[in-house]
Amino acid sequence: MEYSSNQVSKMSGVSARTLRYYDEIGLLKPARIASSGYRIYGQAELDTLQQILFYKEMGFSLTDIRKLLSAPDFDREQAFMNHLAELSKKRERLDTLIETVTKSIAALRGEQTMSDKEKFRGFKQAMIDENEHQYGTEIREKYGEEAIERSNARIKGMTHERYAEGERLRQEAEDTLKAALEIGDPAGELAQKACDLHGKWLAVFQPEYNKAYHKSLGELYVADERFKVYYDKIAPGCAEFLRDAINIYCAG
Amino acid sequence: MEYSSNQVSKMSGVSARTLRYYDEIGLLKPARIASSGYRIYGQAELDTLQQILFYKEMGFSLTDIRKLLSAPDFDREQAFMNHLAELSKKRERLDTLIETVTKSIAALRGEQTMSDKEKFRGFKQAMIDENEHQYGTEIREKYGEEAIERSNARIKGMTHERYAEGERLRQEAEDTLKAALEIGDPAGELAQKACDLHGKWLAVFQPEYNKAYHKSLGELYVADERFKVYYDKIAPGCAEFLRDAINIYCAG
DNA sequence: AGTTGACTTTGACGCAGCGTAATACTTTAT
DNA sequence: ATAAAGTATTACGCTGCGTCAAAGTCAACT
């Protein structure tokens, strides 16, 4: 079935102007261009638009959305599962906001006291600080590491410099890790250097370095299949090796 | 208790740049400027910032937020009650989105069929069309007519022209209504003219004029204290008069 | 007191993601 | 055939900041 841009616009609520913009930036190309010059969309395009709107709902930039959708391993069913989880978290944030309102009313009426910090619980900006550890990690494994770091960088207002530094550290940590794995000594100088770099990478995104968290992250890399797969792509056995090296590093 | 902009920023998650911008546009002035030139915020400013963030959460522009907050009849407790209601509606929208995802998954697996229109249920843009009647009315009475019409205009992508036409019609309807009230005949030419204008104003925001809706709106103006207050500000007894005039108009 | 790093200001440029509008061509309905 | 609706391209502008440079202020340390 085919649709004109007006029909797609009415169906989705996205303006025709927006559809043209999406075509222009390569985010959503029409199925074909009629002899009149009119854009014609098909089933696949509607499905893509739906995905775009879900990612927009999660706060991704159009550039990031394009990357995610064009990744060779993009899987629609997996994406839906991710949307489901994220919508649930978003719903929780709304619950927190609702709680903030009810508490604010009670405070206004003198029925209870409320700290100034509490007044901002649930707002998007404040949520980043509260949930950075879990938020970052969970999204990262679901959506891919690069897109997440970009998303986090944008949300947190990190400078390009700082973000680039994080990228450099991560890349160097992984390269060092790979070299250390060839030697095979988690207590060795190279492995400990990799851990040091890894910790520095971690510190770019956290208020400050936390040894316990670093250690638990190493365990997570082994315990969670998806992380394990990610690291074993660097080299087989990498996840366990890094976990062991981190344990030694944090014990030192 | 006083706070520096850094402290407010950390507490609320709003950047210092944003705080400066809010000061610049008159949205959130600091309590005072220290001798150093630094902005110092107090309790009242924190409370105002909280309100700003709630309205932003509802999608209001900063200009509209400033108008709402500076209105002589702005009441914080009433505002909280409104935020509560709006957050609930927002939560319902999320539920609809979640439903859309689960249905999409089922459709993907071939377990059920899904129309193309259904794929977009719950997205912000699509929600406007589905709920315009109730959505517009409820927000209007809660937040003030002008702000709502501006908000709706923005959301719906109305042209400035069309919006201005709606404004002109509303103003003329109210002026005519006032003059008709002085005559005192709801069936009179002037009163019926006011109803005609009022109906035309209604039609600017609806897909098409609906007599039943127009009539129920007249009843609402009398039944709901806040509407009654609004119209009786034009002239005492105005709400009932308009309700009566509309009933006659719609019976004609 | 001097130094350094963190904090804060003002001024200014640029960006994402469109909305709006003009002009001209195409399609649809009467 | 005509008029209205639909659609394209081109181009400007807007909101709400993010980023950055330059300079002043504050706080902690030596």
If you had to describe this structure to a student in words, what would you say it looks like?
The structure is a homodimer of 252-residue chains. With 252 residues, the first copy, chain A, is an all-alpha fold. The first copy, chain A, has 3 domains: 3-70, Multidrug-efflux Transporter Regulator, Chain: A, Domain 2, CATH 1.10.1660.10; 76-154, no CATH class; 158-251, Orthogonal Bundle (Globin-like). Chain A has helices at residues 5-12, 16-24, 43-57, 62-70, 76-108, 124-143, 145-156, 160-183, 189-205, 211-223, 225-232, 238-251, and strands spanning 3-4, 32-33, 39-41. In chain A, strands 1-3-2 form a 3-stranded antiparallel β-sheet. In chain A, helix 8 runs antiparallel to helix 9. The longest helix of chain A is centred in the middle third of the chain and has 33 residues, at 76-108. Chain A is flat. The model of chain A is unreliable at 127-163 (pLDDT under 50). At the A-B interface, helix 3, helix 5 and helix 6 of A face helix 3, helix 5 and helix 6 of B. Chain B binds a DNA duplex (30 and 30 nucleotides) through residues 4-6, 15-18, 20-21, 25, 34-39, 61-63, 154, 157, 159-160.
Helix-strand blueprint:
2 copies of one chain form a homodimer.
Chain A: E1 3-4, H1 5-12, H2 16-24, E2 32-33, E3 39-41, H3 43-57, H4 62-70, H5 76-108, H6 124-143, H7 145-156, H8 160-183, H9 189-205, H10 211-223, H11 225-232, H12 238-251
Antiparallel strand pairs in A: 1-3, 2-3
Helix pairs in contact in A: 3-4, 6-7, 8-9, 9-12, 10-11, 10-12
Chain B binds a DNA duplex (30 and 30 nucleotides) through α2.
